[in-house]
Amino acid sequence: MQKYNDAMEIMTERFGNDSLIAIATTDGERLYNRMVDAYYEDGAFYISTNALSNKVRQVEKHPEVAFCAVDWFSGHGIGENLGWVLDPQNVEIRVKLREAFSAWYDAANNEQDKNCCILKIRLTDGMLIKDHHALRYQIDFEKKSVLVSENWGEFK
Fold this sequence. Notes:
Helices cover 23% and strands 46% of the residues. It is globular. The longest helix is centred in the N-terminal third of the chain and has 14 residues, at 2-15. It is α+β, with helices and mostly antiparallel strands. It contains four helices and eight strands, in the order H-E-E-E-H-E-E-H-H-E-E-E. A six-stranded antiparallel beta barrel has the order 1-2-3-6-5-4.
């Protein structure tokens, strides 16, 4: 469990703020990839977006996504539209998103528009790299387990 806790500490340090990630979705026939601003917390990325966007429409039909972060992290997750940002169920995460994205949030989002929504990517697995591959964390978010490889060695 300590390896998992170590990996989660790195995740929060790197991505518990405005983080640029690429997410890949599908419409069932083609793959689509785009850069988004995301905020990480407790095994999920959160993205402020619009329910009419292609990424949300694709996730609603095909929820599995792949992602890659500039800060040495990639993997897979399950996307879910949490709905309108002003829904009472979104109060806590909305406050965190407004803070994380404070430099641009109000300019990019019209919260009065019911299509202004929060996309949650619940992470299922990922590869987190530290110190230019000196440590690689193979993370299973569902089982809350981690295998670690040092200097390209075997995962243990």
